[in-house]
Amino acid sequence: MDPRELYQELILDHGRHPRNFRFPEGANRSAEGKNPLCGDHVVVKAKVENGVITEIGFQGSGCAISTAAASTMTEVVKGKARAEVDALFHDFHDLVTGKSAGDVDALGKLAAFSGLSEFPMRVKCATLAWHTLEAALGAAGSDAASIEPVTTE
Which stretches of 38-122 are DSSP H helices? Predict the structure, then answer.
C-alpha cells in the first residue's frame, strides 16, 4: 500500500474515532481555540505535573483534519515536557507548511499530515489544537488556567 494511502487512513480513522475526546480529571491547564474562518472549535485540557503532561484531552467540533490533528496530538504529547512539546509543534508546523520534510521517525504518526503542505488553507485546521495546547501550557500557575479564544486566521 502507498504510504500516502496509509496516512490518509490514519487521518480518517482519527477523524471518525478521535482518541482522548474527553476532559481529564484534575486538569490544571486549559485553553479554547477557534478558527472563525471555517468554524473549527477546540478546547484542550491537560494535567501537568512537574512540567510533564500526564493527562490530556480535547473536545470540540470541526472538520476531519482538525479533529484528527487534535486526536493525534493528544497521543504524542502525553508524557512529554514543555520543551519536547514545543519541538514537536515546531517540526509539525514545518511539515504541514512545507518548510521541511521533518524527521519522520521523530514525528511518528504526525507525519501523516505531510500532504497538507499542498493545501495551505487546511494548515490552520491541523494546527488549531497545537496553538490551543501552547496557550494552555503558557498559562502559569497550578490551578486551571483558561485562555480564550486562541484564533488562527
Answer: 64-77, 82-97, 104-107
Q: Which domains does the chain have, with CATH numbers?
A: 3-139 (3.90.1010.10)
Sheet containing strand 40-49, strands side by side? 52-61, 40-49, 29-35, 146-151
pLDDT tens string 132-151: 999 999 854 433 444 445 55
pTM of the model: 0.87
Our CA dihedral for 54, 59, 62, 65, rounded to 10 degrees, sits at 20
How many degrees, rounded to 5, is the angle at CA 52 between CA 56 and CA 61? Answer: 20
The position carrying cell 514525528 is 107
